[in-house]
Design brief:
heterodimer; A: alpha+beta; 7 helices; disordered N terminus; B: alpha+beta; Arc Repressor Mutant, subunit A; Alpha-Beta Plaits; four-stranded antiparallel β-sheet; 5 strands; 41% helix; 26% strand
Chain lengths: 188, 177
């Protein structure tokens, strides 16, 4: 059954190939699609600035505007591009305090881990949270307007959770770098 | 205005600087916060849609955005990519201890670390470690290479302690307002 359906897809793909542009050829091989040098350049430029005009983007990657916008659309459809967001300056937005919190739970059973993860995801102060290897279970990065607010976060939210064994905070004295740009060199 | 502030700015310590910045902070009202919340979530809104969402007409909405940009509260628009699609499945938090706390040595490290594309975040921290780095790579082997060939050779690095993320619970760029 599976073999049959994939064959159908394939033949349909071939049909589209023969009649239309080479770009469609790429979209048919959904998972095998390899990013080429131009795609990588487009992604690099868009990661740095989502507001770049298509005409300028096209110029920078040496394409004419319509194949360029077609590529961007393709990268969106394929899920490489998640979304475009606006970044704010945390200091100027009144959130100069960044804290890394290492959390250890009483029991590392799935039910407790899931409950913790679900709750943490809902707190807006938590910018990032990872389940970690090593001496503790979770590492969180939390932003706050001041130490009072951070204290309130600990007292009223984090330590109110059941099953928390140990919390260790380490304050960021200075952000050195913060990028949303992912490295793409390994795709070469 | 700038002339009055200038003499004060000379020789301020980092703490004083932070206090100064907080006191002189631009005050956001409810409309600003609504605009910022919406734009943080999605930078693609047209001015018309955005205005409708926050309950402002086109021009005042546009003027507020321009002011938020001019104040530097809005840093810019970026595109977020899906790390899974790009095979970036390994996230590592590396804790660094440095050799010397002399200002020049710190600066040398801090400017060198910015140029490592795999290091997406770096903070100097209080506690027993000096810096924490967040590194994204496609495999553990790649991380091992990066560690050996690059991270331990960054200026002033004494030791690196790596912890691996098993699962991402949350990642957002949206600051709470």
């Amino acid at each position: 059954m599976l073999a049959f359906s994939s064959r159908t897809l394939y033949s349909r793909a071939q049909f589209r190939d023969a009649s239309t542009t080479p770009l469609l050829d790429r979209s048919t091989h959904m998972n095998d699609y390899k990013l080429d040098a131009i795609d990588r350049k487009i992604l690099t430029l868009l990661q740095a600035d989502a507001g770049i005009a298509n005409i300028e983007l096209a110029e920078q990657v040496c394409l004419s505007p319509s194949p360029c916008s077609r590529r961007v659309k393709h990268l969106e459809e394929q899920g490489y591009i998640s979304r475009r967001v606006t970044l704010m300056d945390p200091n100027k937005a009144g959130l100069p305090v960044t804290v890394f919190i290492q959390v250890t739970l009483d029991h590392q059973v799935k039910r407790e881990l899931d409950k913790f993860a679900k709750q943490v995801s809902e707190w807006p102060e938590v910018m990032e949270c990872y389940l970690m290897t090593g001496d503790f279970d979770y590492l969180m990065r939390v932003v706050a307007p001041d130490l009072h607010a951070y204290q309130a976060f600990l007292d009223e939210k984090l330590t109110q959770l059941e099953g928390i064994n140990h919390v260790k905070s380490s304050f960021s004295l200075k952000p050195i770098c913060y990028k949303t740009e992912l490295p793409l060199d390994h795709l070469r | 205005m700038t002339l009055e502030i200038k003499p004060l700015e000379l020789g301020r310590s980092q703490l004083e600087e932070a206090v100064f910045r907080m006191k002189n902070q631009f005050v956001l009202d409810d409309f600003d916060r609504k605009i910022l919340r919406t734009l943080q979530e999605n930078a693609d809104y047209s001015m018309a849609d955005l205005g409708e969402k926050v309950g402002l007409s086109h021009t005042p909405c546009w003027r507020r955005i321009k002011r938020l940009e001019a104040e530097g509260i809005i840093k810019g628009k970026v595109t977020l990519l899906d790390p899974k699609k790009l095979d970036l499945s390994v996230t590592v938090y590396a804790y660094l201890i440095i050799k010397s706390h002399a200002e020049d040595s710190l600066n040398a490290f801090e400017s060198a670390v910015q140029n490592v594309p795999e290091v997406v975040e770096c903070y100097s921290t209080s506690g027993d470690k000096d810096y924490v780095l967040k590194v994204v790579v496609d495999s553990v082997e790649h991380y091992e290479k990066l560690l050996k060939r690059c991270l331990v050779h960054l200026p002033n690095v004494a030791s690196v302690n790596s912890t691996f993320a098993l699962k991402q619970v949350k990642y957002t760029t949206e600051l709470p307002l």
